[in-house]
From TrEMBL:
Catalytic activity: Release of an N-terminal amino acid, Xaa-|-Yaa- from a peptide, amide or arylamide. Xaa is preferably Ala, but may be most amino acids including Pro (slow action). When a terminal hydrophobic residue is followed by a prolyl residue, the two may be released as an intact Xaa-Pro dipeptide
Gene3D superfamilies found in the cross-reference section: Neutral Protease Domain 2, tricorn interacting facor f3 domain
Region (Disordered): 1-37, 407-426, 502-522
GO biological process: proteolysis
Matches recorded under CDD domains: M1_APN_like
EC numbers, comma separated: 3.4.11.2
Pfam family, one: Peptidase_M1
Gene Ontology molecular functions: alanyl aminopeptidase activity; metallopeptidase activity; zinc ion binding
Cofactor entry: Zn(2+)
InterPro entries recorded: Aminopeptidase_N-like_N, Aminopeptidase_N-like_N_sf, Peptidase_M1, Peptidase_M1_aminopeptidases, Peptidase_M1_dom, Peptidase_M4/M1_CTD_sf
Record key words, sorted: Hydrolase, Metal-binding, Metalloprotease, Protease, Zinc
Descriptive protein name: Aminopeptidase N
């Protein structure tokens, strides 16, 4: 998932009975909210990023590169495969001040590199080393272009160390990166925003291991992805270290710094579950948090064992307009759990939406951003299935409504597996309704087509075969055809790429409304 905003019309009513809300397409863990001011909406949706890099001289010309992603062609960089990141941040106690940071990247080159491009577009850079030697650097577009003292040969091990400042204050109408909370900071790096926090190869196809160190003054607590790997206290400050035990995409990085309490409990199979909450709210939030172990067990009953070393919820005191499936520590707005207008079944289904992303999107990561429907369609599917089984909200009712809106969604944002590009200045606009309920509708049609037993085998096989890796729409089609024991290429071509919605298997009476509005062609 990227940032996952939702339109006002998708939000539950705040004036009716608890059963009144009609829940619209769910964004990647997005939760509906109250009205946003134009200023807040603009800050969430716009993405013009101003670059502030202090650059040393480097041979000219330096040019931005990319790996050619259809939706973000300049995202990612060719020529190397990152194996690990070591991130260090020093927080001053004020979330308006830049954090002193060191980013160390270990990578293997796939070709000789005279220059190395990193995605980086916010914050000052002081120095760069490649394999222990000072390197020249400059900026080009949203790239930090590094020129090593000696070219790095193909197949060589490369260590890049960047000393920089990570600025939590957005410049222009920056989209993503650090989220400033009432008591500190959190991260929201989806889809194209990790490089606003630290230099990286910012594309989900290049997953890596992470070590994250955070130093903060006394009174603050820092938590990051993975498991604790040490705490050091000295001179009125504390340094926390966390390490992942599974590879992770840069968009899923999470660091929480705040006046927080970490609550611990045990999930299925002894899984450590830890939640990060504002200390003053720990008792108020506990009734929600204690639901997580059972939700994990429910998901395991559907798709198999939880894929990571830990899980938990990060309750942010911030107005974001979304929830986010950052790996092992999902980001939630505190308001979701304290606003009485949201019915219990709805809040729980949103918790399951983000939890299910740990399998679909985090463990099995999209190979390119056009594969986003695999993340959001599955998260929406299990959100709706949980609401049916635990909240008595029939799946068929929701899918019939999604079918009715499907042609409008395809016209506005493109088919599920061929979404239109982001609107100018709004990178997160790729998260349109048709990659949520529209994509879940494809899964419903697939279950109708191949039958429930085969569909359930497919779901388990998908997350098992591609665990800790990346996968594409074509991979899903091949696996579905194999398990369904038939050629499903025609089915997927129509449902994933068609301009109009095909007839629903088993429901010939379902109709889709004529499109009401269209975005400009992109």
């Amino acid at each position: 998932m990227l940032l996952t905003p939702r339109s006002r019309t998708d939000r539950p009513s705040t004036s009716g009975t608890p059963d009144a809300p009609t829940i619209g397409p769910t964004a990647p863990g997005v939760t509906p909210r109250g009205p946003r001011s134009p200023r807040v909406r603009a800050a969430l949706l716009a993405s013009a990023v101003s670059v502030c890099l202090v650059a040393a001289s480097a041979p000219s010309p330096a040019t931005p590169l990319g790996i050619g992603d259809r939706l973000f062609p300049h995202l990612g960089n060719p020529g190397y495969d990152v194996k690990s990141y070591d991130l260090s941040f020093a927080y001053t106690g004020k979330n308006t001040e830049p954090l002193a940071a060191v980013t160390t990247i270990d990578a293997v080159t796939s070709r000789r590199l005279d220059r190395v491009n990193l995605d980086h577009a916010h914050g000052t850079v002081g120095s760069v080393e490649v394999n222990g030697s000072p390197a020249a650097f400059t900026n080009a577009g949203e790239d930090l272009v590094v020129t090593p003292a000696q070219p790095v040969p193909a197949g060589g091990w490369m260590r890049i160390t960047v000393r920089h400042h990570s600025d939590p204050v957005a410049r222009g109408d920056q989209d993503g990166g650090w989220v400033r909370t009432k008591d500190g900071l959190a991260m929201a790096n989806q889809a194209d925003a990790g490089h606003l926090v630290f230099p990286c190869n910012d594309h989900p196809s290049d997953k890596a291991m992470f070590t994250i160190r955070v130093t903060a003054p006394e009174g603050y607590t820092a938590v990051a992805n993975g498991l604790p790997a040490g705490v050091v206290r000295a001179s009125g400050a504390t340094t926390w270290t966390y390490r992942t035990q599974h590879p992770m995409a840069t968009e899923l990085t999470q660091v929480s710094i705040g006046r927080s309490t970490v609550l611990h409990r045990t999930g299925p199979h002894g899984l450590p579950v830890r939640d990060v909450v504002p200390t003053k709210d720990r008792e108020r939030l506990e009734p929600w948090l204690r639901k997580t172990p059972d939700q994990i067990a429910w998901m395991e009953s559907k798709v198999g064992r939880y894929p990571f070393e830990t899980y938990g919820l990060l309750m942010a005191q911030a107005t974001t307009g979304f929830e986010l499936e950052t790996q092992t520590l999902s980001l939630f707005e505190r308001e979701l759990f304290t606003q009485p207008a949201y019915p219990k079944w709805y809040v729980e289904s949103i918790m399951v939406h983000e939890l299910s992303h740990q399998w679909f999107g985090d463990s099995v990561t999209p190979r390119e951003w056009s594969d986003l429907w695999l993340n959001e369609g599955h998260a929406t599917w299990y959100e709706a299935l949980y609401a049916q089984e635990r909240g008595k909200r029939p799946m068929e009712t929701r899918m019939k409504a999604a079918y009715r809106a499907s042609d409008t969604g395809r016209a506005a944002g493109g088919p599920p597996a061929a979404p239109k590009g982001p609107r100018p200045g709004q990178k997160i606009s790729i998260f349109r309704p048709n990659v949520y309920d529209g994509a879940a509708l494809v899964l419903y049609a697939l279950r109708q087509e191949i039958g429930q037993p085969a569909f359930e085998r497919l779901e388990r096989a998908w997350v098992a075969v591609h665990r800790d890796g990346t996968a594409s729409t074509a991979d899903f089609e091949r696996l579905a055809s194999s398990i369904g024991n038939r050629d499903l290429s025609g089915f997927f071509q129509a449902w994933l790429y068609g301009r109009t919605t095909p007839p629903m298997p088993g429901h010939p009476d379902w109709r889709s409304d004529a499109p009401k509005a269209r975005e400009g062609t992109r």
